[in-house]
Design a protein that fits this description.
The structure is a single chain. The protein is globular and about 55 Å long. It folds into 2 domains: 128 residues, Response regulator (Rossmann fold), CATH 3.40.50; 183 residues, 3-Layer(aba) Sandwich (Rossmann fold). It is α/β, with parallel strands linked by helices. The chain has 11 helices and 16 strands. The chain has a 6-stranded parallel sheet, sandwiched between helices. It comes from Paramaledivibacter caminithermalis (strain DSM 15212 / CIP 107654 / DViRD3). This is Nucleoside-binding protein.
C-alpha cells in the first residue's frame, strides 16, 4: 500500500514538473511570437518590380524585416487618391502599428487617417504635413543629382542633355535645377531640355519622351521617373544615360553611367525600433549624403574619364559642408539673379521651388 502511494506521489510530482516545463516553454514561445507580431505596412505608388522608386522602398522593407524580425505587409500600384484611405484602414485591421506611405499624392489622405487612428504611427514620404502621430520624411536627393550633373556635363558632345520628368512639383523641379547646376559647373555651354510625362510609372511613355529628346539632338538622357525606359531609349540610340532611384546598370549596360539612388533601410529600422520601444515622436526628416539616405551609384565604364576625380572632389565638399548646391549667385531661366551671391536657399524655399535655373529649357505649368 505504501509503495502504491509513493508511486502515485512520484507520478503526480513528475506530471506537475512536465506541465510546468511545458508551460514555461509555451510562455517563451508566446513572448518570442509577440516580438514578431509587430506589424508594419508599406504603400507603393508603382509595382515593386519597377526597378526604381517602389523597388527602392521595397528593398528598405526587406532590410527592415531582416534587421528587426518584424512582420510587414505591402500594397503595390496604389493610386494617389482616396483609395489609399481604404488601403491604410485594411492594414490597420490586419494589425499594422506603423504605416509608411511612399508617394507625395498620399499626403492629405494620410493626414486624415492619422487623426482617425491615433494609436498607429504614420510616416509619409516626400510631403510636408505632420500630426501628433504622422511624420514626413525625405532625402536631399538634390545632392547626388548635382554630382550626376557633373558626369553628364563632362560626357555630352552636343551640349544637349535630355531630362524625362514626371510632374511639375517642387521635388522634381528641385532635382532638375540641382542636376543643371552640376552640369553647368563643369560645362557652362550645356543645356538641359525637360520633357514632362505626367506619370510616375509608365515605361512606354517614359521611353517615348526620351526618344523625342534624342531626336532633338540630346546625347545624354537623365530622368525623374520610375523605370529604366529612358535609359533603354538612350542605349538603342547609341547615347548615354543617368538613371534614378537604384543602380540600373543591368537594364542598359551600354548607356548607363551612374544614378542618384536611395537607401531607405536604415531610416525604416530606426523609426520602427523607436515605435516598438515607445520612443517614437512625430517629426520632419530630410537627410542627405552625410546621413547616407542618398548617394551617387558607382560610375560605370561609360562615364567620362575625368568624372571620377571631379565627382569625388565635389562630393567631399558637400560632405564637409563647403558646398551647398543652392548657394548664390543663381540665375533663373530669364537670366535674372534670384539667389544673391553668398546666400543659401532655406529648406522651406527649396521645398516650395517653382522656378527653373538658367540652362534649363522647359516650362512649368502652374
Amino acid at each position: 500500500m505504501f509503495k502504491r502511494i509513493l508511486t502515485l506521489l512520484l507520478t503526480l510530482v513528475l506530471t506537475f514538473s512536465i506541465f510546468t516545463g511545458c508551460g514555461k516553454e509555451a510562455a517563451e514561445k508566446t513572448a518570442s511570437k509577440g516580438d514578431n507580431d509587430f506589424k508594419v505596412g508599406f504603400i507603393y505608388v508603382g509595382p515593386i518590380g519597377d526597378g526604381g522608386w517602389s523597388y527602392s522602398h521595397n528593398e528598405g522593407r526587406l532590410y527592415l524585416e531582416n534587421e528587426l524580425g518584424v512582420e510587414t505587409i505591402y500594397r503595390e500600384s496604389v493610386p494617389e487618391g482616396q483609395e489609399v484611405e481604404k488601403v491604410m484602414n485594411d492594414m490597420i485591421d490586419q494589425g499594422a502599428k506603423v504605416i509608411f506611405a511612399t508617394s507625395f499624392g498620399y499626403m492629405d489622405y494620410v493626414e486624415k487617417v492619422s487623426k482617425e487612428h491615433p494609436e498607429v504611427k504614420f510616416l509619409h514620404c516626400s510631403g510636408y504635413k505632420t500630426t501628433e502621430n504622422m511624420s514626413n520624411y525625405f532625402g536631399r536627393m538634390y545632392e547626388p543629382r548635382y554630382l550626376a550633373g557633373i558626369v553628364a556635363g563632362l560626357k555630352t558632345k552636343s551640349n544637349k542633355i535630355g531630362y524625362v520628368a514626371a510632374f511639375e512639383i517642387p521635388e522634381v523641379i528641385r532635382g532638375i535645377n540641382a542636376f543643371t547646376l552640376g552640369v553647368r559647373s563643369i560645362n557652362p555651354d550645356a543645356k538641359v531640355i525637360v520633357r514632362w510625362t505626367h506619370t510616375w510609372y509608365d515605361p512606354a511613355k517614359e521611353k517615348e519622351a526620351a526618344k523625342s529628346l534624342l531626336d532633338e539632338g540630346a546625347d545624354v538622357i537623365a530622368q525623374h521617373q520610375d523605370t529604366a525606359g529612358p535609359q533603354q531609349a538612350a542605349e538603342e540610340a547609341g547615347a548615354y544615360s543617368i538613371g534614378y532611384n537604384t543602380d540600373s546598370f543591368d537594364k542598359a549596360p551600354k548607356s548607363y553611367m551612374t544614378a542618384p539612388i536611395w537607401n531607405w533601410g536604415p531610416y525604416y529600422v530606426e523609426q520602427v525600433k523607436a515605435a516598438m520601444e515607445g520612443n517614437w515622436k512625430s517629426h520632419s526628416y530630410w537627410g542627405g549624403m552625410k546621413e547616407q539616405i542618398v548617394k551617387l551609384a558607382p560610375l560605370s565604364e561609360n562615364a567620362p574619364e575625368k568624372a571620377t576625380e571631379k565627382v569625388k572632389e565635389a562630393e567631399e565638399k558637400i560632405l564637409n559642408g563647403n558646398l551647398n548646391v543652392f548657394t548664390g549667385p543663381i540665375k533663373n531661366q530669364e537670366g535674372k539673379i534670384v539667389v544673391e551671391e553668398g546666400k543659401i536657399l532655406t529648406d522651406s524655399e527649396m521645398l516650395s521651388m517653382d522656378w527653373f535655373v538658367e540652362g534649363v529649357e522647359g516650362k512649368i505649368e502652374k
